[in-house]
Amino acid sequence: MTFDFTDKVVLITGAGAGLGNACALAFADAGAKLVITDICQQSLDRAVVDLASRGAEVLGLINDASDCADVSAMLDSIIERYGRLDIAVNNAGTATPLQEFHEVGEAEFDRVMGVNLKGVWLCMQAEIRQMLKQGGGCIVNMASATSRNTYPNASPYVTSKFAVAGLTRTVAVEYADRDIRINAICPGNVATPLVVSLVEDLSVLATKHAIKRLGTPEEVANGVMFLASDLSSFSTGSLLEVDGGWNAI
Amino acid sequence: MSRLLNKVAIITGAASNPGLGHATAIRFAQEGAKLVITDIDMVGLAAAEKELVALGAEVLSMEQNVTDEDRWQEVIDATVERFGGLDVLVNNAGIAVMRPISEYTTSDYDLQMDVNIRSVFLGCKKALPAMIASGGGSIVNMSSVAALRGIPGVSVYGIAKAGVQIFSKSIALEHAADGIRCNSLHPGLIDTNIQNDSRRDNPDEFEKLGDTVPFGRMGYPTEVANCVLFLASDESSYVTGAELVVDGGLISK
After folding, report:
1. Residue A62, strand partner residues
2. Residue B248 and residue A176: Cβ atoms within 8 Å?
3. Does the residue B1 lie in any domain?
4. How far apart are CA A235 and CA B233, in angstroms?
5. pLDDT tens for each residue of A102-156
6. In chain A, what residues touch B219 (CB-CB under 8 Å)?
7. How far is A134 from chain B (nearest CA, A)?
8. CA of B211 to nearest chain A CA: how many angstroms apart?
9. Where are the beta strands (DSSP E) in chain B?
10. Domains held by chain A: number
11. Distance separating alpha carbons of residues A158 and A127, to the nearest angstrom
12. CA dihedral defined by B154, B171, B244, B223, rounded to 10 degrees?
């Protein structure tokens, strides 16, 4: 491990599984004090036990990122426990089963946009209010390779991820002069539980990438840690592709 | 730290201090790399070598005009002979010939394109066989925010840097199967010697340049070097054909 986040207070939303969980493990190994959230109690509990067994200080919170009151309470709990928030990884996300655009129900659209876009919006607002009080901080949003590329039959997801990229860059500029850096990571396909639940044949996904394999959760976590670390001290509003060359094709 | 422990890296344009190549060489040395540094400025290069050796790095310095195909081959051969392989290439050497198109001569054009893009073509072409023989590697090509936005007076520099960007993507695809990654890095305003002309010609305006950056300042060479380091290291093992912007928010404003 080459990154060092000793005693940094790091929030990772949606950390019960998948990329968020990989980020939590990586930050724990790098010495961070963790706050992890998830909407699923069972996943959250398992992650908290796992992180604690590695010696990490961890606060687990059940949270619906798309619920304003819930997000507000989340920040209160973080400040009550740790007194500050240094780094936030807005990772919580969801997707619909692959479906042609004209078949997508309004409720499905609302659900995906609620978590993937409004969730990032609400979390960033709460995080930035705290970061302004304490004089700075760093935010990494989970965008996607589909923040720049298409993915047929995933229109709600792609729409939400394009929006996250625009939101990230705009808000980054607004707070650039107040020591808050805001960047996004754009992962390619990784065999997370979410992806596995939606895609029947993972080998087809591998062909989307120049590196003819899926990414690993650890590779995405490395990118997140780069953006959260001082190595990227002059980057804000940047989108980092960790996508095995998908965007270049 | 040991992000590049025992990796063999070539960095072009490493003499100018403060400069991006020089800062990259320093960071690579701190992270355990074996270094080949090149430049046309042998006095500056000797000073850089001294600094790197003081950091405990093994260093080979070579005079190199990056537009010279034969010299590229000599640099690659010398690298492999000295260190037994090649893992990382940083195509950093570049110049900025910036003036309005009405004043831009064809010889200005040829010079700008030769130094900033023929060099990258030659560097990749000559380094790839040695990297493949080494079992893979990482190429970092120095582009610029000038590849991503129009800037008055920067037209031909912009062509070259946009060329570096898309060239990097194609090389990434051509050699992904060889375990070779290729990415472009896009710095914004960084306080290096490449700013010397504007610092000298328009000192008052130069002072205000930092205010045009959302961060309110120019970047430090080390901040760019840290991005090169990430792209060169195994921490970015799934990053290829990507464009990493390090600009203090400049292109987002």
Report:
1. A38
2. yes
3. no
4. 18
5. 999 999 999 999 999 999 999 999 999 999 999 999 999 999 999 999 999 999 9
6. 234
7. 18
8. 10
9. 8-12, 34-39, 59-63, 88-91, 137-142, 180-187, 243-246
10. 1
11. 25
12. -80
DSSP-derived letter for residue A17 is S
Comparing alpha-carbon positions, the chain B residue that sits nearest to A212 is: B177
Give the residue-averaged pLDDT of B100-120: 97
Residues of A with catalytic function: 157
For residue B123, tell me if it sits in a domain: yes
**Which residues of chain B approach chain A closer than 8 Å at the C-beta?**
1-3, 169-170, 172-173, 176-177, 181, 188, 190, 213-216, 219-220, 223-224, 226-227, 229-230, 233, 235-249, 251-253
Beta strands in chain A (DSSP E): 9-12, 33-38, 58-62, 87-90, 137-142, 180-187, 239-242
Domain-embedded: residue A1: no
The reported pLDDT for the residue numbered A39 is: 97
Domain coverage including residue B69 = 8-252
Which chain B residues touch A235 with a CB distance below 8 Å?
227, 244-248
What DSSP letter does each residue of A220-240 carry, written as one string? HHHHHHHHHSGGGTT--S-EE
| CB contacts, 8 Å: B212 with chain A | none
Global confidence as pTM: 0.95
Chain segment B214-245, per-residue pLDDT in tens: 999 999 999 999 999 999 999 999 999 999 99
For residue A2, the model assigns a pLDDT of 87
The pLDDT assigned to A1 comes to 56
For residue B157, indicate whether it is catalytic.
yes
Task: Let me know if residue A196 belongs to a domain.
Answer: yes
User: Is A177's CB within 8 Å of B215's CB?
Assistant: yes
A4 located within any domain: no
| A2 in any annotated domain | no
pLDDT in tens, B46-84: 999 999 999 999 999 999 999 999 999 999 999 999 999
Selecting from A173, A177, A241 the residue whose C-beta is nearest the C-beta of B242 gives A241
Of A2, A225, A235, the CB nearest to B246: A235
Interface mutation target, options A139, A235, A239, chain B, most CBs of B under 10 Å: A235
Of B197, B204, B213, B217, the closest CA to residue B153 belongs to B197
pLDDT value for A184: 98
**Complex ipTM, two decimals?**
0.93
Contact present, A92 and A23 (Cβ < 8 Å)? no
Structural contact between residues A211 and B176, judged by C-beta atoms closer than 8 angstroms? yes
Angle formed at CA A215 by CA A108 and CA A208, multiple of 5 degrees: 70
Number of separate domains in chain B: 1
